[in-house]
């Protein structure tokens, strides 16, 4: 077997097509010359060149698969944030326009929100002074990719029963990424067309026995019952709000649940255009 | 595969380099904006609801 080509004469350009193809053929097709002359096939399809090409091809495929998987992680963690951010901006603009321009629906008819429609804005000061997320009706992936989703058939803000919202933990704007930082008494504010509703995370010593935070299995549907952790058919015992997201981060093995109770009643937006005092507690 | 692509890109090294980068960007864009959004809802680790 010929060894590496002798050092090129000093006056020859380094990457001139010296006899690489013939000279150093242990490198296989990587050293094919610039004319597209594939050295491997010189050995015949069943020769050493075939196996060399096959190994090279498999190796390249594996490296490529690795790169694609890495890119998928980048997509999940960063790109979806970007896409959801854009969607949230659009939804926010639309919702504000809708609130400003369309006549107020008759009282009580807010319960008729179409699936996929934005109907309120969620603010959680613990997660950031400017933490604002437009909430959509429905908890299908289509809605959750745009923002927190409201469980269909759960109560609407301010109503007796349980306002249940689901949101992504990582990616898709990560609305509920830091939900494990919530503490008893933290305000969770929901803005609707005309009102602010302030919910407060329950304390562990709450007389209702409902925990402020719990980690449950994905099938524990009772957390979104009208009275959290009671039967789905039981009558509500108050106005609650429940947030659900996946747990631990980057996994969907369990669900992280936050329960809160309405603190006071509806606060008129006409009176408090900048929001209730609870928003500025921190 | 990659060496085959490299050999079939026209021009000298600068042109081949530029074209390779364009190809990589095109494939990445295709993955990020078409393939991944399609694949993602079919994967099991995005559930955040109880049901």
Fraction of helical residues of chain A: 10-25%
As a whole number of angstroms, the C-alpha radius of gyration of chain B is 18 Å
Low-confidence residue ranges of chain B: none
- Strand % of chain A is 15-25%
Within CATH, the superfamily of the domain at 117-280 in chain A carries the name Sortase
Main pleated sheet of chain A: 8 strands, mixed, barrel
The pLDDT mean of chain A sits at 83
Helix fraction of chain B, binned, reads 55-70%
Strand order of the largest sheet of chain A: 1-2-3-4-8-9-6-5
**What's the number of extended β-strand segments of chain A?**
10
Give me the strand/helix succession of chain A: HHEEHEEEEEEEE
Largest interface: A-B, 43 and 22 residues
Euclidean distance between termini CA atoms of chain B: 46 Å
Question: At the first level of CATH, what is the class of the domain at 117-280 in chain A?
Answer: Mainly Beta
Number of helices of chain B: 2
Sheet/helix structural class of chain A: alpha+beta
Q: Total number of helical segments of chain A?
A: 3
Low-pLDDT stretches of chain A: 18-33
What is the CATH-assigned architecture of the domain at 117-280 in chain A? Beta Barrel
Walk me through the structure.
- The complex is a heterodimer of chains A (282) and B (51).
- Helices cover 22% and strands 20% of the residues of chain A.
- Chain A has a domain of 164 residues: Sortase (Sortase, Chain: A, Beta Barrel), CATH 2.40.260.
- Chain A has an 8-stranded mixed beta barrel.
- In chain A, a hairpin with a 3-residue loop joins strand 5 and strand 6.
- Chain A is built from 3 helices and 10 strands; from the N terminus they run H-H-E-E-H-E-E-E-E-E-E-E-E.
- About 6% of the residues of chain A have low confidence.
- Chain A is α+β, with helices and mostly antiparallel strands and 282 residues long.
- With 51 residues, chain B is mainly alpha-helical.
- Chain B is 67% helix and 0% strand.
- Chain B is built from 2 helices and no strands.
- Chain B is rod-shaped, with a radius of gyration of 18 Å.
- Classes of the chains: A alpha+beta (282), B mainly alpha (51).
- The interface between A and B is medium-sized, with 43 and 22 residues.
